[in-house]
């Protein structure tokens, strides 16, 4: 019953941490750089686009990845449709990150390795190179709109990169073997989570857009009142440093805008201006959009 361990490395113009695995994988700029894999105790191998598909991905009875959701999304959107990779049935998929979290350990590979006291950690030099390769280079003013510049590693850097991926596969294997297997109930939840993430769920788009617009208009009104209240010294509820300076100048000791800190100021009967400023700050809808054109 061979067990396969693997790790996919990619590049894209999309920020994975912002977009999430499925949006990232579906973007046309996302490409697979390589796949590191190992069967049981064998030495890790590297697959790159154009190579034959490793037979192990068909024959292994158990396939392990750390944060399998990412590998599943890349396989669904890129490896299978572009390169003809076989689909891995959900019942054969095992996520070592899920195993770590089920054991109340950190999810990140290097963090759980540290928590488990494993004999080696992630390759920091290789990690830095991977980050450089996975994101587009800065654009020049004269670049055509559709031109994407990527960092192309030198031969010795490519070897360093592949060794980094192999090391991650070995570390993933150690983490997997150091952790207890998921219970049948936890594995069933892992499969259900995979189905939901791949299928998606229904959303009332019109309602969501209406709620966003209400929050946007409320922020405009709150920021206008803050601007008038402070005579232009503070113009938005997000200007934490200015709000703290304003409160301090009115005779209060405060180092943050946590609920406890704000409650302490309000308990000391502040002026109407300070009280109202803190109330407006608390009422302001959380601003999570990075682009004002979409908020």
Distance between the termini: 52 Å
- Structure summary, number of beta strands: 5
Number of domains: 2
Order of strands, main sheet, comes to 3-2-1-4-5
Helicity level, as a percent range?
40-55%
Radius of gyration: 25 Å
CATH architecture grouping of the largest domain: 2-Layer Sandwich
Q: What's the number of helices?
A: 13
| CATH class designation of the largest domain | Alpha Beta
* Series of H and E elements: EHHEEHEHEHHHHHHHHH
Mean pLDDT: 92
Reported by name, the CATH topology of the largest domain is Nucleotidyltransferase, domain 5
Question: Which helices and strands appear, and what pairs or packs with what?
Answer:
Elements lengths: L2 E9 L4 H4 L1 H6 L4 E9 L5 E3 L8 H4 L2 E4 L2 H16 L9 E3 H7 L6 H8 L7 H11 L20 H24 L5 H16 L5 H25 L10 H10 L9 H8 L5 H12 L12
Parallel strand pairs: 1-4, 4-5
Antiparallel strand pairs: 1-2, 2-3
Helix pairs in contact: 6-8, 7-8, 10-13
């Amino acid at each position: 019953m061979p067990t396969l361990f693997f790790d996919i490395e990619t590049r894209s113009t999309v920020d994975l941490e912002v977009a999430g695995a499925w949006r990232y994988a579906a973007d046309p700029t996302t490409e697979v750089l390589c796949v590191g894999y190992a069967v049981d105790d064998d030495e890790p191998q590297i697959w790159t686009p154009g190579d034959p598909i490793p037979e192990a991905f068909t024959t292994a009875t158990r396939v392990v990845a750390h944060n399998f959701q990412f590998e599943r999304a890349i396989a669904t959107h890129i490896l299978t449709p572009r390169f003809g990779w076989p689909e891995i049935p959900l019942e054969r998929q095992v996520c070592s990150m899920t195993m770590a979290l089920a054991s109340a350990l950190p999810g990140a590979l290097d963090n759980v390795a540290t928590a488990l006291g494993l004999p080696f950690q992630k390759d920091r030099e290789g990690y830095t190179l991977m980050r450089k390769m996975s994101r587009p280079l800065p654009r020049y003013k004269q670049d055509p709109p559709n031109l994407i510049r990527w960092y192309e590693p030198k031969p010795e850097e490519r070897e360093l990169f592949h060794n980094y991926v192999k090391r991650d596969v070995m570390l993933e294997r150690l983490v997997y073997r150091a952790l207890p297997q998921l219970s049948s109930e936890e594995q069933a939840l892992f499969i259900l989570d995979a189905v939901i993430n791949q299928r998606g769920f229904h959303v009332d788009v019109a309602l969501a857009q209406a709620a966003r617009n209400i929050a946007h208009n409320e922020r405009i009104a709150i920021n206008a009142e803050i601007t008038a209240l402070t005579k232009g010294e503070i113009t938005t509820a997000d200007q934490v440093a200015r709000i703290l300076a304003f409160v301090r100048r009115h005779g209060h000791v405060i180092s943050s805008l946590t609920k406890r800190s704000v409650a302490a100021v309000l308990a000391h009967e502040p002026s109407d201006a300070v009280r109202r400023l803190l109330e407006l700050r608390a009422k302001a809808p959380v601003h999570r959009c990075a682009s004002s054109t979409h908020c």
